[in-house]
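so my prof wants the structure for this chain in the tokens format not the other one, which i didnt know existed until like an hour ago. anyway here's the sequence
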Amino acid sequence: MRRGPKILLAVFVLAAVLAAGGWSWWQGREARLPEGIAFGNGRLEAEQVDVATKFAGRIVEILASEGEMVEAGQVVARMDTAELEAQVRQAEAETRRYRRSVEEALAQLEQRRGEATLAARTLDRTLRLAAQGHAPQQTVDRHRTEARSAEAARDAAERHVEALREAVEAAEAGVERLNQQIREAALRAPRSGRVQYRLAQPGEVLAPGGKVLTILDLTDVYMTIFLPTRAAGRLAIGAEARLVLDAVPETPVPGRVSFVASQAQFTPRQVETREERENLMYRVRVKVPPALLRRYEDRVKVGLTGLAYVRLDPDVAWPDFLQSRLTGTDWWSG
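here's what i got, hopefully its the right format
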């Protein structure tokens, strides 16, 4: 029972030694940095995009597994389209019916136009005869009424044809809408990348917007760090950077500052003194060149921890321990 305190004491001593060693390493590395270079710790992250359904439906098959690389536009899942295909057949039948109705209405329109033309000519002859005193006024009135009725019937037939043509257009649009839904039932990867998560299984019924897969865009990888006011105030967008990953510390990776927050992330409740203002931390994002990521796509892994060094002064040279075979190539021009 007496060994407990001794074990605890040994653990505390070991932790103190490790902490002191880590602090010494940190201080030593910071001392090796020239004025004009700042650094912070973080982990590699990548832009995530979800493959989701636009319409409700049942998942028939999923064609990509976790960890698999997919290309932009590649079909990664399919939804059941049996009901949609039945609706398409119904809509196509309705379209054909409207088209036949248009043909019949056009024939009726020709008939009504002929009747209107005949009635107009009859009225014209009657008016000439009436002017010569050979036709009574009753006949003129009757022929005038018939001409007006024929014109009204012709106009109604023209409007009926136009309405049927609009019905055909609406039916064709309905068919195209259903066919578009069928095409969208084949879920495609919006970007090239690696499948990170499989969020659904075949046979599941998903609502509109239901997520099926999560894809990591490995051409958009970055590390987020936090820098104090003094460093963030001097840092420019586009400044050169170096990433040193804990997994491969001997190979610094080139980078570039793509974002500096306009507001401090850690703000004390009361910021009154200069010392307190200098303790404010700003979020900074360091992006890895897409060309480099494409070159080593099979080795890129998000979540790796490390340090990001940023150059506050473009005239300051990078120290030797932040140089490697990767930093000697201009990956941003590719």
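also thought this was worth mentioning. The chain has three domains: 35-47+218-326, 52-80+186-206, 82-183.
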